[in-house]
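task queued by scheduler; priority normal; single chain, no ligands, no partner chains; default sampling; output format set to structure tokens
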Amino acid sequence: MAFCIAGMFVGDCTVSNPESVSISYPNFISDINNVGGKIKSNL
């Protein structure tokens, strides 16, 4: 997740274990949306 912001400038970013977001970085989805990222679920 830490490199997703940088990765957005060169292409797509994939978070392998998205369930960990709620524990390690609860505002991750909100922060990505705030910088113009788009979240897509593969569920």
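post-processing summary
- The mean pLDDT is 81.
- The chain has one domain: 1-35.
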